[in-house]
């Protein structure tokens, strides 16, 4: 709900309202909120509620600049260490991305993008890089959802699929380069959002 702006940037809510909205118990919602607070997506104020992090286009640039190196490490490691299970998940993510383009479905694309991040995390076998990347990827998806009109789904999917191909080919250097190119595409979108 935060990524897709269903919970609007800067809006306030309460733990009780979220429990009712998602239909889960207090403990899982509270644990999720603690994680979201740690990731900088919500601000928890005791007895005052929760505030969803605002969206400042300039922050997207900062997220991407931080994300670039970590993504390159993950892609290179994934090309080196991908297991058959990880390869299957990478294939599934590529197929889901292509299907999202055919359907022109942004929500399907976001789900495929998250699946791809999880598949690369599995393949990379580097829990330290994964822990750094995960919150940055979530922030990036949120910004992309808000400003995605600057890039077609087909262009975004193609950049993702080139990363997948390099990983599946076991080409570490190419995987690293393609991850860098993908972040460059996203950064061009962020630059355009800042200039608006």
What attributes characterize this protein structure?
5% strand; 3-stranded antiparallel beta sheet; 3 strands; Four Helix Bundle (Hemerythrin (Met), subunit A); mainly alpha; Arc Repressor Mutant, subunit A
Description:
- By secondary structure, this protein is mainly alpha-helical.
- The chain has two domains: 12-52, Arc Repressor Mutant, subunit A; 57-195, Up-down Bundle (Four Helix Bundle (Hemerythrin (Met), subunit A)).
- It contains eight helices and three strands.
- It has helices at residues 15-22, 26-38, 57-81, 84-103, 106-124, 127-147, 153-168, 172-195, and strands at 12-13, 42-45, 49-52.
- The protein has a three-stranded antiparallel sheet with strand order 1-3-2.
- Helix 5 (106-124) runs antiparallel to helix 6.
- The longest helix is centred in the middle third of the chain and has 25 residues, at 57-81.
- The two termini are 25 Å apart.
- 33% of the residues are buried.
- The model has no long low-confidence stretch (mean pLDDT 94).
Quick take:
The chain is mainly alpha-helical. It has helices at 15-22, 26-38, 57-81, 84-103, 106-124, 127-147, 153-168, 172-195; strands at 12-13, 42-45, 49-52. Helices cover 74% and strands 5% of the residues.
């Amino acid at each position: 709900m935060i990524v897709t702006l269903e919970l609007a940037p800067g809006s306030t809510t309460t733990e009780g309202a979220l429990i009712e909205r998602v239909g889960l118990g207090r403990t899982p919602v509270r644990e999720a909120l603690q994680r979201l607070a740690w990731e900088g997506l919500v601000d928890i104020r005791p007895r005052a509620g929760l505030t969803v992090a605002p969206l400042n286009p300039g922050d997207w640039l900062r997220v991407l600049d931080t994300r670039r190196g970590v993504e390159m490490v993950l892609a290179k490691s994934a090309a080196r260490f991908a297991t058959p299970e990880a390869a299957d998940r990478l294939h599934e993510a590529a197929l889901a991305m292509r299907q999202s383009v055919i359907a022109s479905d942004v929500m399907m694309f976001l789900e495929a993008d998250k699946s791809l991040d999880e598949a690369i995390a599995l393949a990379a076998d580097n829990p330290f890089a994964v822990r750094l990347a995960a919150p940055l990827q979530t922030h990036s998806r949120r910004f992309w959802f808000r400003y995605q009109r600057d890039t077609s789904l087909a262009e975004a999917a193609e950049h993702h699929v080139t990363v997948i191909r390099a990983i599946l080919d076991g080409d570490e250097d190419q995987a690293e380069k393609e991850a860098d190119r993908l972040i460059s595409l996203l950064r061009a979108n962020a630059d355009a959002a800042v200039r608006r």
